Amino acid sequence: MSAANPSEHRGLDALIAATQGAMGDCNAIILARTQSEIDLIPALAGHLIAGGGKRMRPMLTLAGALLAGADINSDAGQMQNAAKLAAAVEFIHTATLLHDDVIDASELRRGNKTASAIWGNEASVLVGDFLFARAFELMVETGKIAVLGRLAKAAARITEGEISQMLLAGNPAASVEDYTRIITAKTAELFAAAATSGVMVAGGDDALAEAMEDYGMALGVAFQIADDALDYAATSDAIGKEIGDDFREGKITLPVILAWQDGDAIEREFWQKCLGGDIGGGDLDKALDLIKKHNTITRALDEARKHAEKAAAIIEKTEIAPEAQKISTALIEAARFAAMRGV
Amino acid sequence: MSAANPSEHRGLDALIAATQGAMGDCNAIILARTQSEIDLIPALAGHLIAGGGKRMRPMLTLAGALLAGADINSDAGQMQNAAKLAAAVEFIHTATLLHDDVIDASELRRGNKTASAIWGNEASVLVGDFLFARAFELMVETGKIAVLGRLAKAAARITEGEISQMLLAGNPAASVEDYTRIITAKTAELFAAAATSGVMVAGGDDALAEAMEDYGMALGVAFQIADDALDYAATSDAIGKEIGDDFREGKITLPVILAWQDGDAIEREFWQKCLGGDIGGGDLDKALDLIKKHNTITRALDEARKHAEKAAAIIEKTEIAPEAQKISTALIEAARFAAMRGV
User: Fold this and answer.
1) How many domains, chain B?
2) Any idea what the CATH number is for the domain that residue B151 is in?
3) Fewer CB near the terminus (10 Å): N or C of chain B?
4) SS3 B120
5) DSSP symbols for A218-247
6) Nearest-CA distance from A228 to chain B in Å?
7) Which residues of A touch B (CB under 8 A)?
8) Which tens digits make up the pLDDT trace of A257-308?
9) Residue B121 has what pLDDT?
10) pLDDT over 80 at B78, yes or no
């Protein structure tokens, strides 16, 4: 597979460089719009937003606007709207993280203490709601109702994905199709909405909006599969989560589904017991051994790479204006990065 | 005060009658838009929405549209948009209730078990998020971006109000001004947005939109003061909450603030102890005695009545088309009901 060629896998550097100016505006908007008379709101929101992350989603919005021909230097109005939209996308993402912290009581997020562990569940729910509302206020300011429609749909689908994931917890007999449907809703939907709405806000044509929609969807699936695989492979340093977080929460992800499918009766019983919440000392090590035995991290990452290549191919076959070639190259590299990072 | 005249206090009957047809459409939209492939969503949302309540907020939206001249019989497009908006308003309200259940772990809401007690916090947070997203989808369908702007602002203000209330919990030395500011944000803001956006979606003029904004704000304040007063007066049967819910949660409301202001040092110490979470057997009875001693339920309801009269006066001095007189009379009666119900 071509992605195995290291020269095609240069990470996010090009995308970061291409969106840097507008990302400065986006960050300023994020800072300004988390302000409130109530000090707790900027404190809590800032904790999570400053906590880092790669800002993949807002970068996709800005890249979409640039692909559509918005010019960072000369077209201040369009780029300002794109920056607002990018901030809105990051707010929606942050709101889901805050609500997710409440939900699964995870102790680590990006290597820091979760907001809910510091400020309590109540504050996390409410500040999440605040950011969600602020996201819609920002979108209203862009004046494009179609953009609001796309992101409202994404927000509904994200919660459907999270609910499906909650209902599937503890059940390793799930199919790969179930898993893919869930991560498409809970993760890829926002990637797709972020990317396509960037095109929309900058007045790009339908073909380009559709290409970015499909690119974002494939990228989001690749990204989530890789994230889930690394949960059984990476150390806290690498992705800011403790290894085995998903295992402890009974979350059903691809490495587990594949190990369960290939496992014998005793192995299946082990998975069922642990993912059902009955985890003893040494069980995580045993789970890691089974994952190694069935080679399911590598197999999951192969699956991620397929989706990443699909994303790259969509951009490759889309007609891009010569002045936006840098952006399209950056998007192709970003897709390959999504499936390879941390490996 | 004129509101003491029983003939001017005929409850919600007129408002219910005037909005009945459109409310049928609104209820059908609510039912249709809580559907999902995931059975849990309509089950959980339906539990709360079917649980009753007076549907004050969607009625205000429909009344606003009717005041603006939308005709239930002949102007299907405008009334359909108003019904969608009314459903969106009810979804926002329901989402805040679901998130509030998570927050304060209250055992009763409208006399039924809370959703979170049945399905768990995780489900309540996520279904609340789902309804919030669906609300914005419905608003997008009305095609009026100004309506989205007003309700997005309301959503942000509601969470600010809820956060302020959380931060004030346990502190009875709060001022009446603090309390009023909080209930204006957490309750009146949505009443105001609901009422004014009904005018906006039906193409009413700015003067009418502003009148309904101010009416909704005053009505919402009256409604919340009365609700808070009844928490120390009503039985579970009357308002579907157990008496003393707010006391147990350390919530700071007007009867408590007034009792604290008029209390001696020993009484103040008692309030501080109980609202700080240290409640012993007999303490609720003692609190009720103090509230009776200082007559603070009656005083709170007097305050509610002032806001209700303000709301009524706003409608009385607004120019209303002759064919919409029934609606304006109904709104005046509804305002008086808000401050008198259950007494």
Assistant:
1) 1
2) 1.10.600.10
3) N
4) coil
5) HHHHHHHHHHHHHTTT--HHHHSS-TTHHH
6) 21
7) 36-38, 40-41, 95-96, 99, 102-104, 121-123, 125-127, 129-130, 132-134, 136-137, 139-140, 143, 145, 148-149, 152-153, 155-156, 158-160, 162-164, 166-167
8) 999 999 999 999 999 999 998 999 999 999 999 999 999 999 999 999 999 9
9) 78
10) yes
